[in-house]
Write a structure and sequence with these properties.
Elements: H1 4-8, H2 12-15, E1 20-21, H3 32-44, H4 55-75, E2 83-86, H5 89-104, E3 110-114, H6 123-132, E4 135-139, H7 149-153, E5 160-166, H8 178-187, E6 191-195, H9 207-210, E7 214-218, E8 229-233, H10 235-240, E9 251-254, E10 259-261, H11 275-291, H12 293-311, E11 318-320, E12 331-335, H13 341-350, E13 353-354, E14 356-358, H14 363-369, E15 374-378, H15 385-401
Parallel strand pairs: 1-13, 3-4, 3-5, 5-6, 6-7
Antiparallel strand pairs: 2-8, 7-8, 9-10, 11-12, 12-15, 14-15
The structure holds pyridoxal-5'-phosphate (PLP).
Length: 404
């Protein structure tokens, strides 16, 4: 049985009990197991990877390789060589736009991306479009906050080369199933990139079953440390792509005349990697797997369902995005008439409640929704109904203070 109150005991910062933490979509808290895994490297045998022939370096290299295998297993990647470690989802997407985009896309080719994308999956394509004359076509968000296949069908043309979208929106919580998108992309020979920054932490993901070409996520949103991100890519695509950053570790041989590249994934990991962070991420996915990702998702549905119900009791409160928990990830954004999200977040903070206010790095989406900002509460494995109750009391109190 999944018991969030027991899970919470594993998170040192949360056991202090001074903060109702409702901002996991921005970054999650860390369990003891992750802190310990990283501490152990520094205390028991720290040395750079891939370089030394002595015990500490060999142990660190083995632990780094093991973390890659664990992440591959967690995401259902057929092999660890298809997992590239980056700094975060943003870097993974930039890698794709620079390496894949600038090699395989040319003027007049079309990229379809959704209107609800995080800036991380927006700006790299905007820059590519401006630089190369690639055409961006935007998959519109429906009035219910979802991305419909009918709307996608209306955008796909023989010139569509790439379709990219978030599996779970960081604002609306909208869940989009990659499978039917992949089927449509295949029909016109297009590639699919899934931004899994908000899905990999919260639901079972199997990239091989989904059939996607690329999948990205961030360690820090899935109980791991900052500074480590993931790019899954199908091996033949990674092999065909040129390096993104160059320097040490990513080469096979360097001479005064030129250089040849290392095998994937090391071809994409220039310089000393964030191997301690990768080892921390390995511990995080081990922890999540022990909880069971189906249980993690079931808990999220339960807490989201409760939050949607309680929030809908607040007069005038408008929930952005799907209104049922089964169609919703663990982030709920909302607006309140006559209350600015920053004022609400500040008043909530005075009660020790941490939520996010602003555009959540999705300005085009907010523009589409006709607003400039929203307040977002987001949940994770340690979130409990009393957190939602505290949020509702805080909102009611803020409404009184602001006479809204
Ligand atoms: C859907 C989505 N994509 C990408 C990102 C970027 O993640 P990071 O800042 O870790 O690179 C985020 C972060 O909030 C996100 O929610």
């Amino acid at each position: 049985m999944f018991d969030a109150s027991k899970v919470r005991q594993d998170f040192p910062l949360l056991t202090r009990g001074d903060t109702v933490f409702l901002d996991s979509a921005a970054s999650s808290q860390k369990p003891e197991a992750v802190l310990r895994a990283m501490d152990d490297v520094y205390r028991r045998g720290y040395a750079n990877v891939h370089r030394g022939v002595y015990a500490w370096s060999e142990a660190a290299t083995a632990a780094y390789d093991a973390a890659r295998a664990e992440v591959a297993d967690f995401l259902g990647a057929p092999s660890p060589e298809e997992i590239v470690f980056t700094r975060n989802a943003t870097e993974s997407l930039n890698l794709l736009a620079y390496s894949y985009g600038r090699t395989f896309l040319k003027a007049g080719d079309e990229i379809i991306l959704s209107e609800l994308e995080h800036h991380a999956n927006f700006v790299p394509w905007l820059v590519l479009a401006r630089e190369r004359g690639v055409v961006l076509r935007f998959w519109p968000v429906g009035v219910d906050g979802t991305l419909s296949l009918a709307a996608l069908d209306a955008l796909i043309t023989p010139r569509t080369r790439l379709i990219t979208f978030a599996q779970v929106s960081n604002v609306l919580g909208t869940i989009t199933d990659p499978r039917p998108v992949v089927a449509r992309a295949r029909a016109v020979g297009a590639r699919v990139i899934v931004d899994g920054a908000q899905s990999a932490p919260h639901m079972p993901v199997n990239v091989a079953d989904l059939g996607v070409d690329f999948f990205v996520c961030s360690g820090h949103k899935m109980l791991g440390p900052t500074g480590i991100g993931v790019l899954y890519g199908r091996r033949e695509l990674l092999e065909a792509m040129p390096p993104f950053l160059t320097g040490g570790d990513m080469i096979s041989r360097v001479s005064f005349e030129g250089a040849t590249w290392n095998e994937v994934p090391l071809k994409f990991e220039a310089g000393t990697p964030a191997f301690v962070e990768a080892i921390g991420l390995g511990a995080a996915v081990r922890y999540l797997s022990a909880l069971g990702m189906a249980n993690v998702r079931a808990h999220e549905i339960e807490i989201t369902d409760y939050a949607l119900e309680r929030l809908s009791e607040v007069p005038g409160l408008r929930i952005l995005g799907p209104d049922t928990a089964d169609r919703h990830g663990g982030a709920i954004a909302f607006t309140l008439p006559r209350v600015h999200p920053h004022d609400l977040a500040s008043l909530l903070d005075q009660r020790g409640i941490a939520v996010r206010a602003g555009h959540h790095c999705a300005q085009p989406l907010h523009e589409r929704l006709g607003i400039t900002a929203s307040t977002r509460a987001s949940f994770y494995v340690y979130s409990m109904p009393q957190d939602v109750d505290a949020l509702i009391e805080g909102i009611e109190s803020a409404r009184k203070t602001l006479r809204a």
